[in-house]
Amino acid sequence: MNLQFDESLAANYKSTAQKIRVMSEVWLTQNLFCPCCGNIRVEKMPNNSPVADVYCENCGETFELKSKRNHIGAKILDGAYHTMIERITSNVNPQLFVMQYSNLSVTDLTLVPKFFFTPDVIEKRKPLPPTARRRGWVGCNILYEKIPAQGKIAVIRGGTEVAVAEVLRSYDKAKKLQTNNINLRGWLLDVLKCVNEIGTEIFTSQDIYKYAGILGAKHEQNRHVEAKIRQQLQFLRDKGFIEFVSRGVYRKVV
Ligand SMILES: [Zn+2]
Asked: In this structure, are 33 and 125 located in the same domain?
């Protein structure tokens, strides 16, 4: 895999954003395999496709690409807020590639599967001011740091490619968490994040119930927070992310 962008592609573009857009997108189609099915390449979407940039001919998955120079940081700028929320809740969201580059070379590429998106990780930005061409338009940020670790699948890490088999394995594992009901998805990913935050491999119900207050505040319509947490732990156990050691004692499966 050649990690360097092809600079000749940028010659006809004026703005840096456009140059990077063209170079990073072409880079994907020339170098990347499909992280969902292992197909040897991904293709460019027809021009002006509203949401996705590339797709896989074999499995039909579509991907949006967001890139940033030097450091991804906590937030990633995305498009219109309402469109994004609609996409997430109607399950037509593409997969997301998050690319970090430095000196026109890819240093990190991470796949965020579409089923890791909840309204919670989409931040509404301030409407554009009256002086702007698109006045009143409301954009959004993806709160990247709020996405649990299991939803950030490394394809390139620190300038080094991750083995294809490992990427596919991580995606298959993450896919077990897929749920299309947006409320259930919110609960599941929230409890998963709490489990991730607990510093030890073995933990107890008391460790996880410490988050009941936070979770209850986030899901106000639900009064039986502890029961809901237990239900998510069962789901995580059934999907192989944790094991039940004994009554009220759990172990994380790495
Ligand atoms: Zn594919």
From this structure: yes
**Domain limits for position 228:** 182-252
Say whether both 158 and 200 belong to one domain: no
Cα–Cα dist 104/93, whole Å: 28
Task: Take residue 244 and report the two structure tokens written for it.
Answer: 């039940």
- Percent of the chain with pLDDT strictly greater than 90: 89
Residue 41 alpha carbon to ligand 1 centre in Å: 8
Query: What distance in angstroms lies between residue 35's CA and the mean position of ligand 1's atoms?
Result: 7
Give distance in angstroms: CA of 61 to centre of ligand 1: 6
Separation CA 207–CA 210 (nearest Å): 6
CB neighbours of 135 closer than 8 A, spacing ≥ 6? 127, 128, 129
Q: Where are the beta strands (DSSP E) in 23-129?
A: 43-44, 54-55, 62-69, 75-80, 95-102, 105-112, 122-124
Same domain, residue pair 118 and 56: yes
Q: Are 32 and 2 in contact (CB under 8 A)?
A: no
What sign does the CA torsion over 215, 175, 157, 195 have?
A: positive
The amino acid that residue 7 corresponds to is E
Residues 149-161 have pLDDT tens digits of 999 999 999 999 9
Expressed in angstroms and rounded, the spacing between residue 90 Cα and the centre of ligand 1 is 21
Q: Which of 162, 191, 206 is the C-terminal boundary of a domain?
A: 162
56 C-alpha to ligand 1 centroid (Å): 5
